[in-house]
């Protein structure tokens, strides 16, 4: 819903056409964005509480927010 065929590697709107239920189609764009923010904050908070730090996981969490596909 928010990308291009080239980036997705599949036709835009194909999930909807194939009646595939996604979180975005179920909850809507605004709620999906709010959930990303909530889950990201929770994941980072949990990671920060670990005794051993893992910068790779921290970077991965933030990468997944803005990934293209």
Characterization of this structure:
The protein is mainly alpha-helical. The chain has helices spanning 5-8, 14-17, 23-27, 29-49, 55-66. The protein has one domain. It is built from five helices and no strands. The longest helix is centred in the middle third of the chain and has 21 residues, at 29-49. The protein is elongated, with a radius of gyration of 15 Å.
Q: Which helices and strands appear, and what pairs or packs with what?
A:
Blueprint: H1 5-8, H2 14-17, H3 23-27, H4 29-49, H5 55-66
Helix pairs in contact: 4-5
Any descriptors?
5 helices, single chain, elongated, 69 residues, mainly alpha
Briefly say what this structure is.
This protein is an all-alpha fold. The chain is 67% helix and 0% strand.
* Percent of sequence in beta strands: under 5%
Enumerate how many helices there are, as a single number: 5
Query: So what's the overall shape?
Result: elongated
For the CA atoms, what is the radius of gyration?
A: 15 Å
String of helices and strands? HHHHH
Q: How many strands?
A: 0
Fraction of residues in H or I helices = 55-70%
**Arithmetic mean pLDDT:** 84
Task: Count up the domains.
Answer: 1
Distance between the termini: 11 Å
Unreliable parts: none
**What structural category arises from helix and sheet content?**
mainly alpha
Described by strand count, sense and barrel closure, the largest sheet is: none
